[in-house]
Amino acid sequence: MLPPYVVLDLETTGGSPTTDRIIEIALIRFEEGVETGRWQTLVNPGVSISPFISRLTGITDAMVRDAPMFEEIAATLYSFLEGAVLAAHNARFDHGFLKCEYRRLGATLRQRVMCTVKLSRRLYPEHRSHSLDAIMARHGLSAMARHRAMGDVELVVDYLAHARRELGEARVLAAVNDLLRGPALPAGLDAGFLDEIPEGPGVYLFYGDNDLPLYIGKSVALRSRVLSHFSGDHACSKDMRIGQEIRRVEWIETAGELGALLLESRLIKELQPIHNRRLRRTRSLFSLRLADRPGRSPLIALVAEEDIQPDVFDHLHGLFHTKAKAVETLREIVRAHRLCPRIVGLESGRGPCFAYQIKRCAGACAGKEPLERHYLRLEMALVPYRLQGWPYPGRIGIREHDETSGRTQVHLIDHWCHVGTAGSERELHDELETHTLKFDLDTYKLLQKHLKKHPDVIPCHVQRPPLPEAAAGLLRSA
């Protein structure tokens, strides 16, 4: 038997529950599969409605001017939701808005949720799209007022009725119960922590019977990610083993995705959790360093990770996990461009090299090619392998802010090295005094990807030596 459930839909001023507001609510409550009540209302959002939203929904500023504010209808809404499962199409969206509205009133909304998008995927896996428009088209359904709250609620109700007729009550009920099944917590893990896990970004740590973590992960939505580990439908045997061994869960909130990624990478390397393989590997790292002018000998030096320093980064080419791979790559470059293996540094000795004698070297070692020209050709051949130089004049700060938690962090970066993360002016001042730089390949890749993905993000330049006012400005600025 289905538990009491409420099919609900919201219209809002936009897509962010932290910055946008609700402008319409509609719902129908069911008990034992029978409708027991319905309710709808416009809501005054306290902000203007954009022309785009007005065109989409038909709701204008004039229509909501005299409508109640959310705080005026919060109790009525809760009377319908109490003791029921909240069902909505893309339920995370509607649930997120409701939680934010109740949080503004100092209340916490805890509701079992069932997403009808996920239900549609379970019932009709052969179809690619499960939007309301796609559902209407393939099942021959219609809506009296599409993109109005009650119109969309009635459409979802009609769809559920259609699915029961087409697939049978038992199959639909089984799919619903499967989606509603709570997390299968392992023995020894107290369920009390579930309600404490924050919704925002951060890093989580799973512990077993001792103080060494079993697994460290990150997410922009901590709560849902942690709960997914206890879903019962593990994708692989490793996930199942982790779920069975957990005895304690801890988490660290961050202000954004970059902070979570940087923290996860650092903690995995420091704590070496047994179920993290990719980031915890202590891999060797080598690069090819080009001499700064033609007269140097050899022109290429093999540099190990511990010797990769910011002042030579612009002269480095390629990152290789073994010395053999680095040498092999250099040999291929030398052969392909008829460079001298002796001058480059692959061979020892004096005079013409063996490659010149078999016409595989242009003759820089025999005085047949100017050293400057040979150096330029080597430099051009290495261009595809050149590491991206640090594009800033010095240390920078990348600011992240999470609107839900109000948390702000500044990540201090210098020559692709993560110097530290500060969440307060004092911490930032302390981090600015840090001069130790250690190159890390994972951090290098993370920062490259972040700055490429967010070209609109302008890092804040930080002066050195640190200035208290500059530090404060980084954390206060928008």
Fraction of residues in helix? 25-40%
Tell me the major beta sheet.
5 strands, mixed
Q: Give the averaged pLDDT, no decimals.
A: 85
Separation of termini?
51 Å
Strand content: 15-25%
Q: TL;DR of this structure?
A:
The protein is of the alpha+beta class and 478 residues long. The chain contains 18 helices and 15 strands.
Can you walk me through this structure?
This protein is α+β, with helices and mostly antiparallel strands and 478 residues long. The chain folds into 4 domains: 5-180, 2-Layer Sandwich (Nucleotidyltransferase, domain 5), CATH 3.30.420.10; 194-271, GIY-YIG endonuclease, CATH 3.40.1440; 286-385, no CATH class; 396-476, no CATH class. 37% of the residues lie in helices and 19% in strands. It contains 18 helices and 15 strands. It has helices spanning 51-57, 61-64, 70-81, 91-104, 116-123, 132-139, 149-167, 169-180, 222-228, 237-245, 257-271, 323-336, 341-344, 354-357, 371-381, 425-432, 441-453, 468-476; strands spanning 5-12, 22-31, 34-42, 85-88, 113-115, 202-207, 213-219, 248-253, 286-290, 300-304, 316-320, 396-402, 407-414, 417-422, 460-461. α4 links the parallel β4 (85-88) and β5. Residues 462-472 have low confidence and may be disordered.
